[in-house]
Amino acid sequence: SQQGEEDPQALSIQEGENATMNCSYKTSINNLQWYRQNSGRGLVHLILIRSNEREKHSGRLRVTLDTSKKSSSLLITASRAADTASYFCATDDAAGNKLTFGGGTRVLVKP
Amino acid sequence: DTAVSQTPKYLVTQMGNDKSIKCEQNLGHDTMYWYKQDSKKFLKIMFSYNNKELIINETVPNRFSPKSPDKAHLNLHINSLELGDSAVYFCASSSSGGTGYTFGSGTRLTVV
Predict the structure, then answer these.
(1) Facing A104 at nearest CB: one of B41, B45, B106
(2) Which of B4, B41, B48 sits opposite A98 (nearest CB)?
(3) Is CATH 3.40.47.10 correct for A5-110?
(4) What CATH number has the domain bearing residue B42?
(5) Mind listing the pLDDT tens digit for each residue in A76-85?
(6) Nearest CA to CA, how far is A96 from chain B (Å)?
(7) pLDDT higher than 50, residue A1
(8) What does the pLDDT look like over A17-71, one tens digit per residue?
(9) Contact: A101, B105; criterion CB under 8 Å
């Protein structure tokens, strides 16, 4: 079963706008990670946030984590056409043995 | 220079055949994984190996047999292929300490 559920499943925005996607999970985690997958490609690690962190930034990416609500959000600011991809959240369980992925959000950035 | 490389990139084969997918990482990571991505893009872990030792076998049919000859390699052999095995298979690696995974570019397996 999927640990993470992502919302929305798909998102279409204009270049320059911000894109926000959310992830909810069910069990205790060590950390939560976000990945990007371009069509026909492998997944690329974007950012990792540990369970004792609440917010993290990397370039145009901002990730929040609320462990009391078991949820995370990924914000991409000033989006570009090259940001068009699927974005996945993944949780690293307390044992740290594996990543469990959500279903992904497909983001389309229109030029 | 490729960090995690897997071969082949595409594999088309008939039902009942046996096939292998190879994976190698040059990052010095101690853990390697196989993930399966279905047609709806759901990713599910199949196996993980830490320093050549099997850590996770996620209720995968025993037609699937991973082999790790050393910690830089994790191969996947599939016997008696079925139509439902069609998917994209990803190899990944990570180091201990809770860092991100590095994924290969995937092997698209089509069983006809």
Answers:
(1) B41
(2) B48
(3) no
(4) 2.60.40.10
(5) 999 999 999 9
(6) 7
(7) no
(8) 999 999 999 988 989 999 999 998 999 999 999 999 999 999 999 999 999 999 9
(9) no
B49 touches A at CB < 8 Å: no
Among candidates A42, A44, A96 on the partner chain, residue whose Cβ is nearest the Cβ of B98:
A96
Element (H, E) at B11: strand B10-13
| Residue with token string 């008696």 | B80
The count of structural domains within chain B is: 1
Task: Identify the H or E element spanning B20.
Answer: strand B19-25
> Helix/strand/coil (H, E, C) string of chain A?
CCCCEEECCEEEEECCCCEEEEEECCCCEEEEEEEEECCCCCEEEEEEEECCCCEEEECCEEEEEECCCCEEEEEECCCCHHHCEEEEEEEEECCCCCEEECCCEEEEEEC
Per-10-residue mean pLDDT of chain B, 112 residues long, equals 91 97 96 94 93 85 93 96 97 85 96 97
Tell me whether residues B98 and A48 touch, CB distance under 8 A.
yes
Confidence grade of residue A2 (pLDDT, cut at 50, 70, 90): very low
User: Where along chain A do its domains lie?
Assistant: 5-110
Interface of B with A in 2-21 (CB under 8 A): 4
